[in-house]
């Protein structure tokens, strides 16, 4: 029996969250916190060994299972990504499941198809949002949405209702980022809704969303010029714009303030309301210390990481082989499923 293993990275947003939902540009980087899944067809739906009816799995998994014909599968999952922290944990889950299900059907990895399926799963679960997180997790590295790009850097295009997002790759100069987690979990959907209501009812808020788009375009120019002072200043300014939109919180503001003396710039990252902030710095240890001293959890992140990866193996054969030769290992594998 075939077993498929997939691993998908999380991400943070350099610039552009929330505005990207309305077709404005974004700049994101995949990071070395990953979600991993191992899948095989089974007699019942199982997650980490626990029986779960199809309807009781997460909506993302449910959508993807149904998309692939609804055959029962046994999944073993593990994640390095704190959930509700703005790092795209549900996007990484959706990307890893989409890739593993493709592989179980014997298809070669098709990142564009994975990005599209995973975005649909996110949309099904959240009812709103952009393909930014899912595309970054599928592609890895640096990913831009709706930015001017060279023809060869275009990865794929995703459309939903009346919006289209062009997803492209961008190169980054060497940069160091530190994340600070407030530890406050905040769901993306209600924050996206809050901005939508504000934007629809108020032309001032709509202007702020447009301005985030301009700041993000300026950010790509700064990145291409290797101008970290300018990029940092734009990030800090973007934090102010996001605060005006009502998606920051005192804890995020406190971590941003704490990081700024040692940083080019800092801002919340992701949907806000809690979760993480990010600082661009060449003094990561000082920033990490300042974040810790203000009650946050720092991560000095590694970027330039691969997007989704997938592999398959003949699980039955190997396990039979292991069962004969290494009984302990077989038991271990089964108990983690
Ligand atoms: C969440 O990581 C980013 C948001 O822009 C929502 C989205 O793009 O779907 C807030």
- C-alpha termini separation: 15 Å
Order of helices and strands: EEEEHEHHHEEEEHHHHEEHEEHH
- pLDDT < 50 runs, ≥5 residues: 319-337
How is the CATH topology named?
A: Ribosomal Protein S5, domain 2
Described by the principal axes of the CA atoms, the overall outline is: globular
| Biggest β-sheet strands, sense, barrel | 9 strands, mixed
Distinct small molecules bound, one entry per kind: (R)-mevalonate
Q: Estimate what percentage of residues fall within beta strands.
A: 25-35%
The radius of gyration is 20 Å
Number of domain modules? 1
Number of helices: 11
Please report the first level of CATH classification, the CATH class.
Alpha Beta
Write the CATH architecture name. 2-Layer Sandwich
Report the oligomer. Answer: single chain
